Amino acid sequence: MIRISWDIDSKRWYHHEQNVMVVWGAADDPLPFSPSLKKDFSFTLKKNDFNKAGPIIGILTSSKKNLPFIGNIDTFIRLTRYVHEQGGLAVVFSAMDVSLSSIHGYTLSPGDSKWRRVKIPPPDFVYNRIPYHKDEASQEFQSLIAWLDNFSIRYFNHCFFSKWQTYLIMNDNPYLQRFLPETMRLSSKQQLRDFLNEHNQIMIKPCAKSKGKGIFSLEWKQDGTISYKSNNGIAYTHLDHLWSIIHNRKDLIMQPFVKRKQYHARPFDYRILVQKLEEDWHVTGYGIRCTGRSRLTTHVPSGGKLLPAETAPLDMKIIRRMSSEIGKALDRATGPIGEFSIDLGVDSENRYWIFEINSKPMVFDENDIQKKSIERWYQQILWMTGFAASDIKGPSPTHTIVKGG
Ligand SMILES: Nc1ncnc2c1ncn2[C@@H]1O[C@H](COP(=O)(O)OP(=O)(O)O)[C@@H](O)[C@H]1O
Ligand SMILES: [Mg+2]
Question: Is the model's pLDDT at 270 over the cut of 60?
Answer without folding.
Answer: yes
